[in-house]
Specification:
The protein is mainly α. Helices cover 62% and strands 5% of the residues.
Amino acid sequence: MSEKKKTVSAGQEGGRKGGKESGDRGIGEACIYDARSLGAPKVLVLGVQHMFAMFGATILVPMLTGLDVSTTLLFAGLGTLLFHFLTKGKVPAFLGSSFAFLGGYAAIAPMADAAGNPLDNSKLLPYACFGVACAGLVYLLLSLLIKLFGTGKVMRFFPPIVTGPIIIAIGLTLSQSAIDNCSADWFIAIVAIALVIVCNIWGRGMVKIVPIIIGVIGSYVLAAVLGRVDFTPVREAGWIGLPIRWDRTAFWALTDGDVSLLITSVITIMPIALATIVEHIGDVSAISSTVGNNYIKDPGLHRTLLGDGLATILAALFGAPANTTYGENTGVLALTKVFDPLVVRMAAVFAILFSFSPKFAAVIGCMPTATCGGVSLVLYGMISAVGVRNIVETQVDFAKSRNVIIAALILVLSIGINYSAAGSVGFVIGDLNISFSGIAVGALTGIILNAVLPGKDYKFDDDNPKHTGVDFAVRGRAGD
């Protein structure tokens, strides 16, 4: 075998060590390949594999919100390259579309009315994008605070008892839109759900890593065979085109001049960053556990947050969804044992190339609503499940009344306000109508209560990444 490789203990503190150490054999052992020694053809294939791992979830966000698929792919690629530059090229992470912000998009630019009838949200989406761009500023602020004061002093304000219920509420508040989309064709939706479950539970190799894209493609093809898809837009679309439209950018919203909507968007969407920051920490922890390097220390959590935040701001300003580090690609790292960030950067380049094909975007746009509904039904539930896992794995003590009160108010306010008649809590200042979404009210309430109520015992541990939040590490089996 000509490929250069070295064997390390993936869970060993301190990262890679050349050679196979005595007693390290078994769970967590990994054969680490240097991508540069594999040769260009294999590196390209590995890059394509990483692109397909993120592909299903990344393009699903614009499909569910009305954002442009081509713009999304372009800034997923550019955001990933920016992230790698700011983290000194050390962290093998891919940045794709964040699902956590779907509730924010839906609050500002709904795609359907209360009866499920489609709405034209093209004039409202730029305002939502402005709110997401401002949410990216929270990453930058936290990055600066961590640089100045250290990780532990800052993150103690965002313990799992606050962030866990927020993540749970995000998934639950999105559930109605998934059911509405499934209602368009329950047969196609159930096929999509079944494919995702079967591939995720019984699949092997890449099938297990990309169940979302298999569910999307399988149900899409079935709908096309049954004559339930109109491919006219695909025939009319060109092969090459620019992936950015001015009237879909946040810059257009700033020139349009609706100050009330701009402020409402910021207030509604910015608090969601508190949940996505925890998601970011969990993903960086997972990559650290998988590779065997503590990336929270080197290049540092402040650098990874800076990269994620700037990528989100850049994407949102030009009309793409918020970016986030992707757990799907961490799974690919564990599967292939190729941890070289070069491979992930190749995936980013492929995403950029695909973004310049309107015909490819049209194929995505013709996807049945029920396909989106079936897949999103699983994904929204998984968002809430991640929040539950966050609480369980960090061992939040619900014997304490303070923790019960904080979690209860976050959940009830977030979900109750979202499903109320108004769908938000609003007030008027002069000529401005300001609205707070349920998630915004719940998040702010949880943060304030956690800060003022006695009995805080959470300590952020950057020495042991798995204790910082959700541990998404994919561990090997003995003998692998």
